[in-house]
Design brief:
about 80 residues; mainly beta; OB fold (Dihydrolipoamide Acetyltransferase, E2P); five-stranded mixed β-barrel; globular
Length: about 80
């Protein structure tokens, strides 16, 4: 029987904190449209992301994927730095 690996979610955002060991906090912004007034507004969410080598600093744009739970809040892993 063939086992299918699930597609892991991939997100991209800006590092806003690197003060924890092997963890960075990444802010992901998205634009939403108000249903009644049709105005676009920015909504952001913060993710704790695993950074094994402590190589990413505040202001870096990174791409990260879903992974197994590593702690209470950390379920994401950095894949690469995005060159902007």
């Amino acid at each position: 029987m063939e086992t299918k690996t699930p597609n892991k979610r991939t997100l991209q955002g800006v590092v806003v904190s690197d003060k924890m060991s092997k963890t960075v906090v990444v802010r992901v912004d998205r634009m939403k449209l108000h249903p009644k007034y049709k105005k676009q507004y920015k909504q952001s969410r913060r993710f704790k992301v695993h950074d094994e080598k402590n190589e990413y600093k505040v202001g870096d744009v990174v791409r990260f994927i879903e992974t197994r739970p590593m702690s209470k809040d950390k379920r994401w892993r950095v894949v690469a730095k995005v060159v902007a």
